Task: structure prediction
Amino acid sequence: MIQTIDGIQFKHMVLHGAAAITLQKQKINDLNVFPVPDGDTGTNMSLTIGTAATELRKSDTHDLGQAASTTASALLRGARGNSGVILSLLFRGLSKALKGHETADAALLAAAMQEGVASAYGAVMKPAEGTVLTVSRLAAKRAVEAAEENNDVDFILAEAIRVGYDVLAQTTDMNPVLKKAGVVDAGGKGYLVILEGMLASLRGEPMPEIPEEGAEVQEKADFQVFSDEEITFAFDTVFIVRKNDPNVNLGRLRAYLDSIGDSLVIGEDDSAFKVHVHTNIPGSALTEAQKYGTLELAKIENMRTQYEDVMAGRKAQSVDDLEDDDHPEKSGGPAAPEKRYGFLSVCAGEGLATVFRDLGVDGIISGGQTMNPSTESILKEIDKVPAEVVFVLPNNKNIIMAAQQCVGLTEKEVVVVPTATIPQGVTAMMSVDLELEPQELLETMTSAIENVSTAQITYAARDSEFDGFTISEGDYLALLGGKLFGTDKDITALLEKLAQQAKDQSAEFVTIFYGEDVSDEQAQAAEEIFSRACPGAELSVLPGGQPVYYYIVSIE
Result:
């Protein structure tokens, strides 16, 4: 029996919970209703609580309130996607209830769980039942009841989890969308996995080992073990590439990289691969790798100059120094206001970024589908905008809540425009009137996005039965207004159906943004399809360069 917990025990509980959901994140991702490749629930919750685990590893406080506060603060800044934000809110309320307490018994912990639920419900504009909110609410209710029966921390957590799983099984019938797909709520499942990990820690069970998703490599050389003459290849090169084809054979790439360098390690999963290589021609390594996908991240460091720095007693230069030099505001606080209004947009693809910059956006946050930016990354970009009031356009329904968490975290006034798609973001920017007051401008931009319909074509990430459609992995999917519009093995057939839809809506303006996997010739063919269907509409075709979505179509 465990009567109370302190800060050290709470730390290990959160670390165990983070490991547990990381281990099961793909199973949770697979519960997502829509089969499109999106910023999945398991991934977002895992990344979110992972930020808290990172901060807690630096802490050895025995004070429970302080440990809970550290956890809540890290979760808030690391929150990704709606599921990550709700998870952060559950821990924020829990932290509020534990503030000032060095330890907690079962009754206090149960009350804190209820406070977490209250925080989550209070922050969600339209709480939907049959979600993580329902699961957490009824689990916390049972924890409070259980504490009256037996004031034992182990007992109340076990009871909360037991009831939570009973409720989770019912979410299929509570939510029509889940019922159609025949699955339980992914967020609710993720929350219970974290609670299970926390309980396992209390019971002294070993931390689960997380299998590597690709070989982890040493990204900084150990300069003490060799001399300058022994550095045959100067540049320590590490990069990540998102695959064009999940089944691609990297054998030829491996052979090429091995021919131009050493210390080669390539780790991969279905969606991406990570390369570590020492070479004298890092540019050639990157160029060759891009034949297999899209370069996402790269780090190149000169080991010879680093070795010289270390041997001379100086700090070795690294890519971190570049970030410090390029962003002096990191140490000096938010950028000083040079104007009243500034604008920040989330998008993926250089073409889309150029469109938003041309419309007056001050900063771009790289993100969207499959890569929801965290609250902290949004906040950093807000602080860089040299304006008193910063309008944020999330352009993705799964990023809106993360953006809203930035309000109050900076001295700048933050206004979140609820744009759920790229076309909505573009339309919102086209309606900007700098003479208006902030609330009036928000209302104007919000009103403008009601007049635009968004169509998108992507691919099915997995087999699914949804809304009367039988979907096979790899099929093309057309979405209209966020809902499944059609599925086909021929992308042209879907374009023709969407063009007919635009005709039926008497579209006056149609803008087609084509993605990174679409050639100019294919884009021209898509333009001809819409031109035939809507001869009277003003038609624009622009290279968006976006991943995941072959076409994003704005219909007004």
